Amino acid sequence: MFDTLTKAPGDKILALMGEYAADSRTDKIDLGVGVYKDEQGITPIMTSVKKAEQRIFAAAKTKTYLGIAGNKGYGAAVLDLALGDSVDRSRVRVAQAPGGTGSLWVLMQLIHRAKPGATVWVSDPTWPNHNPIAENSGLQVKTYPYFDAETRGVKFEQMLATLDGLGKDDVVLLHGCCHNPTGANLSDAQWDQVAASLARTGALPFIDLAYLGFGDGLLEDAYGTRKVVSSVPEALVAFSGSKNFQLYRERVGAAILIAKNAAQADVAQSQLLNIIRGAYSQPPDHGAEIIRVILEDPELRAEWETELNAMRARMIGLRQKLSDAIRQRSNSKDFDFIAAHRGMFSLLGLPNSVVEHLKATNGVYMIGDSRINVAGIPEERVGDLADALLAAIK
Question: Where does the pLDDT of residue 139 fall: very low under 50, low under 70, confident under 90, or very high at 90 and above?
């Protein structure tokens, strides 16, 4: 049977990780892998997470199944965190899923069941898993304008013009706060216009929400998602706890659907659970239980928010330091956008030849399209990185 297969293309990010690991230079810098890193270059376990785990281990009495929808306490806590009181909960249903990617997959499958062959509009650029998940779910994929390579901001007028031309058979995949790989985010006023456009056209909003709290704060970052879901009769949200709880390997996500009314929500949820049953049957619980314990306990939640605030402040500080260092050396505003971006990522807008030069000459590793993980910048080497960037560009 297997002689009919050809080798699948390798993952570029995993290949870059291998190159970095094999590089013997002691002064190399890893700006490629999309995980948060602290001052020591480690992706740490939060102290709030450790305390939650200790409570879980002490209280655990069974490892029996929880059911297809997963940890219900976790689901309720995630809805509070992401949606607040923005939408009538009688219209909302949630199912735990293995990571944000698993959430995307089950919701794409749901779209296909509701409207086979529907078109999903994704931003240009988007994450590399969005297109294959949609296509493998039997959906069509088209792009809407997003990133402006000249300003390193959002092509908002072009984006909005495309969204205004869509209809009820279209699905719009939107990046929640800090989620777009470019680092460029919509303002609150722009979210208002996007929500109004979706309300006018009837296109279905599908929000990928994986970095809540990495931008300007939990409440501030939730604005766009809450504005959209409160403005339309139907919506989908794929939530991930990998980043803001530092639970990458626990694969903890949530598939959220908002329907026109409770009866339609029940029907859609039945299909969602049927999809899950036919795939992985039930999600893993450990990460979900950690998040449930943290969010339901005022003391642990306060500790988690303090840790999250520190992570966010560190990334904002690194952005400002790199932007300032480049400006001081070049007397140019060309890289001021780094400080204006939010979240872990910024797309520098460099040609691949410069990216390859930085890797070969300076041991600076980044994704081929020049996307960098700001959290990977060693604070004591910001000046070195600025020098390397400017030299490579010249």
Answer: very high
Catalytic residue among 37, 52, 97, 208: 208
Query: Residue 179: is its pLDDT beyond 80?
Result: no
Choosing from 245, 266, 296, the residue where a domain stops is 296
Give yes or no: 243 in active site.
yes
- Cα dihedral sign for 290, 296, 297, 298? positive
Active-site residue, 260 included: no
For residue 183, the domain's CATH number is 3.40.640.10
- Does 52 fall in a domain? no
pLDDT at 11: 79
Alpha-carbon distances of 345 from 58, 151, 263, 293, 342, rounded to whole Å: 38, 16, 40, 29, 7
Average of pLDDT values for 311-327? 96
Say yes or no: 276 and 314 in one domain: no
pLDDT band at 178 (very low <50, low <70, confident <90, very high): confident
Candidate list 97, 134, 210, 375, residue with the active-site label: 210
Q: What angle do CA 341, 124, 320 make, to 5 degrees?
A: 10
Least confident of 24-33, 199-208, 234-243, 306-315: 24-33
Domain, as residue range, for 332: 11-45+305-393
Q: Examine residue 71 and state whether it is found in any structural domain, yes or no.
A: yes
Q: What is the pLDDT of residue 247?
A: 97
Q: Which of 243, 255, 325, 359 is catalytic?
A: 243
Based on the fold, state whether residues 150 and 178 are members of the same structural domain: yes
Calculate the alpha carbon distances from 15 to 12, 27, 345, 389 in Å.
5, 20, 19, 22
Residue 127 known to be catalytic: yes
Q: Is 36 within the bounds of a domain?
A: yes
Q: Flag whether the pTM goes above 0.85.
A: yes
Q: Residue 128: pLDDT above 90? A: no
| Catalytic residue selected from 105, 121, 127, 191 | 127
CA separation, residue 260 to residues 8, 101, 239 (Å): 41, 25, 21
**Residue 246's Cα: distance from chain center in Å?**
13
Query: Is 208 annotated in the active site?
Result: yes
